[in-house]
Amino acid sequence: MVHKRFETFPEAFVTNLQPPMLNTLHSGYLNAEASTQTNKFYAAKFSPFWNEIIKSLLEEDYINNREMELLLIPSNSGSLNSVQWPLFLLSSKIFLAIDLAVESRDTQYELWDRIMRDEYMCYAVVECYCNVEKILKSLLENEGRLWVERLFRDVNESILDQSVLVNFQINKLPLLLSRITALTGLLGHEETPHLARGALKAMQDLYDVVTHDILSPNLRENYDTWGILKKTKIEGHLFSQMEWPKDPEIKE
Predict the structure, then answer these.
(1) Cα 138 from Cα 145, distance rounded (Å)
(2) What pLDDT sits at residue 32?
(3) Is residue 50 part of a domain?
(4) Per-residue pLDDT for 112 more than 70?
(5) Residue 214 and residue 168: Cα distance in Å, rounded?
(6) Which domain holds residue 24?
(7) According to the model, what pLDDT value does residue 145 have?
(8) Cβ neighbourhood burial of 105 (10 Å; 0-12, 13-18, 19+)
(9) Which of the chain's termini has less CB crowding within 10 Å, N or C?
(10) Which value, in Å, is the radius of gyration of the alpha carbons in the chain?
């Protein structure tokens, strides 16, 4: 029941429990904004209230630290164009979405329609995609960042053109997820020389999987013949300049 109704909690909180003046001040804003931004506003107002309840449960030993992490709501105050929900609602959804994609014989439209039937799966996919892009852009500089920007531009254009299944081999998504998880697992800790070397290797492994397993042959050829990328790869410093993420929104 909580899983099914949790999405309605933030709006109910703002509508019924916030001071009337606050609701009045924001009513025009809420009516004018798109649905996603409205829901994000509700979640940002609700999250401190909910998180205090969860922290009090930890203090009273009703839950442990791991359970608290699953129950806390992100602040929803950042630039991500999606509502961020507690991990207990989303934790298995990425794996389920990948299974759907790998096993699917549908068109891109039909596949996305199946994902959207589960609202939290849809939230999880959008948040994961946006966060991976944000993390990689914050991590890399120069030619490495250019590679990330071009990659996500190609993905976004393929989404609009309904050509994702043509340009990318989605049956290899589990392999891609394993490489992303390996990288982000290191970035979640404070930077040390040892972890920095590990992150560099993880980034190179991610690049190899994207290039050789995810990109279709036609799209891969565009990258193989891209002068600035080809030159940097030959010189061996494509990812030589990496900046450990410091943005609180990324760490959250």
Answers:
(1) 8
(2) 36
(3) yes
(4) yes
(5) 5
(6) 2-77
(7) 92
(8) exposed
(9) N
(10) 20
